Amino acid sequence: MEHNEPGATGGPPGQAYLLDNAGREASARFSALAAMLDPGTIRHLEERGVSSGWHCLEVGGGGGSVATWLAARVGPAGHVLVTDIDPRFLESLQALNLEVRRHDIATDPLPEAAFDLVHSRLVLLHLPEREKALARMVAALKPGGWLVDEEFDSSIDLVSSAYPEEVYSKTYVAMARTMDSRGVDRRFGRRLFGRLRAHGLVDVNAEGRTFMWHSGSSGVSLLRSNYEQLRSTMIDAGYITEADFNQDLAGLDDPGFMMPSPILWTAWGRRP
């Protein structure tokens, strides 16, 4: 594995992210995301034809599970560049055809027309300069190359529950308010289809997936890690009291707990 760390990225690693990789909860979050989302991600990548010899870019590699799969899929004849503003969880990846790079997709350049595939998951919705980042990702594609991006739409999930057992807790609402206050576009997943078309891609399509999160599931593990990482931020902002937070955190262990997840939109398109 090659490590390539260019110069400054415009600030300390993770400063632009509400749920940055420096938090002690990050490892649990990445494990939960991989367990819940990797099967669907891999299906989409397989359907785009990823195979031996491809050159792939993974933007915001996080815990590295998708980059590891890509490296195995493209084989010795292929190459995977995996980037992150804070690549601490990528440093241990072991593959000769995999390169880790500290990189801020919002500000740092990428090689142009270099990749058969560019993939990202749950990155752009956090970025104030998401359109510039998306333009960089499109420009990095070879002619005929595929862009696959996956983002949550959590803007419509605070509706009335269908069953009494479904819970949208005070802490979940506080987390949504915190994200809104920090410039997260919680509707960006739904916008993906239109944004890929607007950037000139062809054969654009999209699929939405949702999950029922319940006690013991990877979705609840994700909620727990996010709640714990944002605890002080939410309480200090006055969005939730400490007593309500503690009650909601304990409620995740209730065998009867359930709530629908946000919609995960996967959109894909090909550079002409």
From TrEMBL:
<keyword id="KW-0808">Transferase</keyword>
<keyword id="KW-0489">Methyltransferase</keyword>
<dbReference type="GO" id="GO:0008757">
    <property type="term" value="F:S-adenosylmethionine-dependent methyltransferase activity"/>
</dbReference>
<feature type="domain" description="Methyltransferase type 11">
    <location>
        <begin position="57"/>
        <end position="148"/>
    </location>
</feature>
<dbReference type="InterPro" id="IPR029063">
    <property type="entry name" value="SAM-dependent_MTases_sf"/>
</dbReference>
<protein>
    <submittedName>
        <fullName>SAM-dependent methyltransferase</fullName>
    </submittedName>
</protein>
<dbReference type="GO" id="GO:0032259">
    <property type="term" value="P:methylation"/>
</dbReference>
<dbReference type="Pfam" id="PF08241">
    <property type="entry name" value="Methyltransf_11"/>
</dbReference>
<dbReference type="InterPro" id="IPR013216">
    <property type="entry name" value="Methyltransf_11"/>
</dbReference>
